[in-house]
Write a structure and sequence with these properties.
It is a single chain. By secondary structure, this protein is of the alpha/beta class. The chain has 3 helices and 7 strands; from the N terminus they run βββββααββα. A hairpin with a 2-residue loop joins strand 4 (52-57) and strand 5 (60-82). The longest helix has 14 residues, at 130-143. The chain starts with a strand and ends with a helix. 3% of the residues are buried.
Length: 144
């Protein structure tokens, strides 16, 4: 079987992805077991340098680093095309025909963000975002 790989984004223009690698197990609460797709579990930030990342999950904060992969990985999407024999409607030809499979490149993964240390417990609520800080600053300037 021949599998063709296509890249529509052009050479060197594929979207960059990264792998987030955590140590241990991330378990969803029973209320979310049936809705795991698109579930946000935390906030990933790059506060100061490009190599250091923080990942905040609830009241736990992890610190990780960005590492290059030895070999880049492609993110592929499988597309099935029916051959002409499938569309003709003959039952004899449908059993002998095959589906053409094509793989389309969606992105390339060159880095991983590794969180290998135990999480730090945040005693108070997580740090406010930049918008919240700006609102507090404006509110304090109005009262002064």
């Amino acid at each position: 079987m021949q599998i063709r790989v296509k890249c529509k984004c052009g050479e060197g223009k594929c979207p960059e992805w990264a792998i987030v690698e955590l140590q241990g197990v991330v378990e969803a609460q029973p209320a979310f077991q049936d809705r795991l797709q698109n579930l946000e579990i935390g906030i990933l930030c790059r506060p100061s340098s490009e190599q250091v990342y923080t990942f905040t999950v609830g009241y736990h904060e992890l610190t990780g680093s960005k590492l290059a992969l030895k070999k880049p990985l492609l993110l592929l999407q499988k597309i099935k095309h029916s051959s002409e024999a499938d569309q003709s409607g003959d039952t004899d030809t449908q059993t002998n025909s095959s589906t053409n499979v094509e793989l389309q490149v969606i992105g390339i993964i060159r880095h991983r963000i590794l969180f290998k240390t135990r999480p730090k417990a945040l005693i108070s609520k997580p740090e406010p975002t930049m918008k919240e800080r700006a609102r507090a600053l404006v509110a304090s300037n109005r009262t002064a």
